[in-house]
Request: fold
Amino acid sequence: MPENLSVPLAALDAADRALVDGVLARQLRPLAKTITLIESQRDDHKARARAVLEALLPSTGRAMRVGISGVPGVGKSTFIEALGLYLIEQGLRVAVLAVDPSSSVTGGSILGDKTRMEQLSQNTAAFIRPSPSACSLGGVAEKTRETMLVCEAAGFDVVIVETVGVGQSETAVAGMTDIFCLLQLPNAGDDLQAIKKGIMEIADLIVINKADIDPSAAMRAKSQIKTALHMLRPMSPNWTVPVLTLSALKQDGIAEFWQQVMEYRAVLTKSGEFDAKRRHQALAWMWDMIDAGLRSRFRQHPQVKHELPQLAQAVEAGSTTPSAAALRLLGYMN
Amino acid sequence: MPENLSVPLAALDAADRALVDGVLARQLRPLAKTITLIESQRDDHKARARAVLEALLPSTGRAMRVGISGVPGVGKSTFIEALGLYLIEQGLRVAVLAVDPSSSVTGGSILGDKTRMEQLSQNTAAFIRPSPSACSLGGVAEKTRETMLVCEAAGFDVVIVETVGVGQSETAVAGMTDIFCLLQLPNAGDDLQAIKKGIMEIADLIVINKADIDPSAAMRAKSQIKTALHMLRPMSPNWTVPVLTLSALKQDGIAEFWQQVMEYRAVLTKSGEFDAKRRHQALAWMWDMIDAGLRSRFRQHPQVKHELPQLAQAVEAGSTTPSAAALRLLGYMN
Reply:
């Protein structure tokens, strides 16, 4: 980027320089402190976080980013613990993050309690961080994405981002990871209605967990899901979404899962789609932030604030057209 | 709407008053002229169109709005002609519009040639209008939605909005109609992959056309589609998406199709969802226009115009973060 276009950064003072150096030296304390800085709502912290992030940026991008979703009870924690321990056995370092937009309200339903992944959390090659709290999904997702970059700079080879299906959180996680994996229960039939609209369509890999409990039900579910997937146009012309059955509890099928993730990376890297997806994600992220910023300014304009509720009501009631209302409100932004 | 919040309208001069009166009197010439005014890109025409629309507004909202989509070759024209003629037989007046975002480039692939619906286009109870040309899908959809309102004011009982699956055009059409119908070919198996991601999920009704050619293939397709639908959470708790087989060419199954549309309206009207959907659509429309307006102003800012290409490139290349780029560009909007 030409020098004259660089964003004016807060000066990287000694303390922040120490954070950057500590992260790059793969030290856990500076890592945790940097993430806390990123999650802070204070304006001075935001400026410092931006400066630290920019300094770390050249050291990011080397991890495999894996999104994991599935309804509560599907066994996400058990799966992530089994996967994490397997990866550590292979000599890899693993970071586990979460996007849980309900965490602001409820205090967080996932990863809030590290005892849920007891073995993994005690392993020095693993780093587990619960979902940030923020007022909006956009805020949560933004902070998680930046935390992911910090983890990459700290040399983690795999970053796992977990989410429960709250709001549009799956879309947000799919938009920040290289591969999005959906965990399913083996109950065939009605329970599969729990597959939320649109989620199966953004999955790159589907896992039927707890297959040991009722193997024949798991096979039925697999066949049903394959049929459903068959009706959807694939995201990539080079990748047919695999449906795997496994048991995270018995650590059965974890190696095969990871083999598929690696296969996915190899195929999409070869076709150029892997890098294209990352470039596209970064750009889409920028536009999301721009749109959010523009809308936030719009809503804060005193005249808009004053008239929006009544105009929205008039549009709903059909007494004015959406375009007339939009034009009137936009007029104040000149 | 309180008087002080009304949007300042262009004065309704004698010519425009004549247009309004003509539309309300159900005359086709003023109807066509009003639509031409709506489709015009000229600023003075836009102001006049807004005034005419506002004057027509109290007379809108009474038509059943039916969206029809399906890949080229599925038989949309034949289906719409058969449906239109059936509805006219029932004493109804039918308007057929189109949303084809490719029309700006190609001159339009649907409804451009009225001979495709020869009988319907010659019937005085029918009004067929090809897709407007505009530079963006948003523009095309906006004009079509406003045209739909004009048709309603002109007393049409049913407005059919046709689309081919270009870009997000199906979502746009589903967002302006009461019921969104997806036409499918009876080829089971591989050809069903042509269902675009997310389209089946917004369908309220699925029609397998050309069922006469291979009835057993049509039944297999029906069963496959039903299985796939079963995996999706329904849009309404009160409506299970029906899958119908029919032959538009032989005019076989058209009455059953319309019966399902009426059933849909009855069920959702009873539950309150019908009106709620329209209110929600109007509000979403307003926000779409606001977002588009904000982004357009943003893009026109000289500094943004100057720096956006390079910053976007830097974000794609990973040499700056999306947030830093967004913050820098948003800074110019103060």
